Amino acid sequence: MSKRYTRLSLAAPAAVLVMGLGVITALAATTWTVRPGGTVTAASKNMVLKDLKTGSVIGCHSAIMVALKSGSGLAGSNIGSVSSAGFSKCVGALDITYTLTAQHLPWHLNAGSYNSSTGTTHGYISGVHAVIGGGLPCIAIVDGTGASKDNGIISVTYKNGTHQLAWLKTGSNLHFYKVNGCSGLIDSGDPAALSGTFSASPPQTIMSP
Description:
8-stranded antiparallel β-barrel, 209 residues
């Protein structure tokens, strides 16, 4: 089994309730400053899709493109959007190769709280929907509360000092749906986590206020 573990997290918007593994966190309303903003590319060699019930892991390389708003006095809700997300070299148990395809883009990046002592923004990505194919053959859908809801959430953090965006293992509502041919490695209804650490280019500064 490929073991590539990552940590990633997102920031939640104003007055939004974020559900993660049975925990609901209310994020306070605030305004944001983003510099320079614009188109940001970010890459990770340690992104992981995990079935949190069976423990099965698929590790991938990943590259995403984010369009960030620019300026000050910005709302945290939809402060940016994930316009593309590509996953490659996806390998799971027994070195089985999979495909993972992001669908129904753009996904939305939301900022919710800021730790000034560490320069860290906490938030989330919403609208997540992805499809697994390839190995065994194994097919499945990754989404939030249903196979076609397009409401998957990934908690994230962004650190100004390291310019790294992290998708976190915890704080998501992701589940597997319509699983077929996966030999029990993943099952329909199982909770899922997409996690990893992405390096942003060009570097961004995100803060509040």
